[in-house]
Amino acid sequence: MVSSADAGRRVDRAGSEASTVAPVDRAVVYGVRSRGRVEATSVHALRALREVADTIVLVHPGRMTPESRTALDGLVDRIVETDGDEFTSASYAAAVDEVRRMRAGVTEIVLTGDSWFGPVADLSPLMGRMSSSSADVWDLLPPAAPREAFPAEGFPAVGDRPWFFVAVRRGFFDSDAWRRWWAESIPPGERERRLVADARRAGVRHARAFETERLHADDPGLFAPEDLLELGVPFVDRAVFTSYPPFLDRFAVIGSEIAEMMGERGYPLGTLRSSLASCLPPKALNAILGLLSVLPDEAVDPDAGAAASIAVVVHVSDIDEIAEILRRLQFLPPGASVFVTTTEGVTAARLERLLEAWAGTNEHTYELRVTPQSPGRDMADFFVGCRDVIQSDAYDLVVKLHMRRAPWKTMNRLRYFRRYQLDNLLSSPGYVRNVLSLFDREPELGIVFPPMIHIGYATMGRGWALLHPHAERLAKRLGIRVPLDTVSPLAPYGGMWIARPAAFRVMMQRRWTFADYDWKYQRRFGHLAHLQERLISAAAGQAGFSSRTVMNFAHTEIGHTALEYKVDQMFSTTRGWPVEQIGLLHRAGYTGYGGTVALVRMFMRINHPRVADVFRPVYHLALRGHRVLSAGRRVASRLRSERGEKEREASS
């Protein structure tokens, strides 16, 4: 901690000793946005602020949980809990008064909060340099202008957020101008933007720690984060990692590269990923941080995962393909515990012979389990039939695989699906070592799986499969507060992954039964197996674990070129940047089969949205009526067909 006695001599930004300045008794008021919890990134920030502040007061919306209070023990001197459930900048005024009551000799109060990630460097040089300034108010960057929001895509406008970093001194906060300014009616979200301008008009001296006009006059925090880091700014604006991904794409704000720069400067990237995983939709985070690992077949670290205790859960209904699974399981480090499930006695008998012969050729152990027939298939066998395995603390990692029949798929599609899943998880012994090394390097990594398959499948754009309302209800029931992706979730489509058991323990809060997967429970859960598959990343995020997708080189070449061509074709009839094209298509809504009614509805939604909103209930009523009539016609047609068949049988 920097005391008043230590503050007499400071070190400037270049590292040379600055002239003697008046001692600074500094307090920090730190605001947090989220109710009920304090993110790990905030704990890291407060630990650094503790080194440069004599007093820290934290402003929290509503009541704070005991767990959060424990995490803040020793980091803050006082917690101010506001009456509302959302952060409001008006609480800074009350917190400043609290600081002055606690510490009568305070000479500088810093107003900041969780609007940034950092610090990415030692704060002492910055604070020492600014201590020599004679200004009565100083800040780091120009206040951010209102930013574009995308509420329909799950990224609504940020209202009154904690301030970035503004320091006010006794010459200002003791003045009538300060009291009048807080008494003035200013809209939420505008106070930080107006403070410097209003202070200057009141004759208050102002200084800025960094000159950023040449970078981006309006919002360098969002649009020039790399330049700011090079300039020495120790913070990165939160919006760099929490904005709508196509919007960031338009301005070439590459989150993964910015995070790498932060890591090079000493910032703990695991803390960043863990915090973001708990508050961002998983697929958005995957895009922003580029959480796709393209791995070679040669092991970078031959010893990776050697000490890990691994359980493998394999559901088998297609025994003809089991040899391929058993071959690939030998790519895992020796000593894995393999649990094979099946629902048929005859299949189990054949499997027993195959597994016994296979176990004699490697160092893995196996156990065969026969489970009841269930519409949940591999997911039911995993969450119910092998609950004891995934609940056990005996395993560091769990590998989930399956080999099931899919008679509705063409052989070509089925072959590619299996290749895609298995190649991207268990391509070769070296590849498996590289996957396991991800878990060694990233303790906060919870689960890895192949990206959404899009060759031979029309999953893209409809990954929720009408399950989004069910997912919201189940997430609420399980206490998952991670925002869900609006279009398609980040999920292991195909039901194969490698994960830490702790990453999906949230999913096990309910003791699932095989009966939960029956069709009669669909009104309660939707299709539960598909729902669990689509919620797995959000469950990991709730526990503070990030999710990552993995591919080998071959499938990256196949998938990226195909995807690039398809996206190019999709955007060929719309103008503007992708973020604008996507917005237009979302406003237009579902195209159906492009009939007259659909085209008229899309025209009205784009050009006359208010009229479309008025008639939307009528449209949905008509649509339901159409479906009822269509179902009636199908039933009538079937009855006529059956009656005709009976008449033909009678006549014969």
Feature tags:
disordered N terminus; eight-stranded mixed β-sheet; alpha/beta; 652 residues; globular
Structure description:
The chain is globular and about 105 Å long. The protein starts with 25 loop residues before the first strand and ends with a helix. α13 packs across α23 (528-542). It contains 27 helices and 17 strands. It has 652 residues and is an alpha/beta fold. β12, α16 (345-359) and β13 form a beta-alpha-beta unit. 44% of the residues lie in helices and 13% in strands. It has an eight-stranded mixed beta sheet with strand order 10-17-15-16-14-11-12-13, sandwiched between helices. It has a seven-stranded mixed beta sheet with strand order 3-2-1-4-7-6-8, with helices on both faces. Strands 5-9 form a two-stranded antiparallel ribbon.
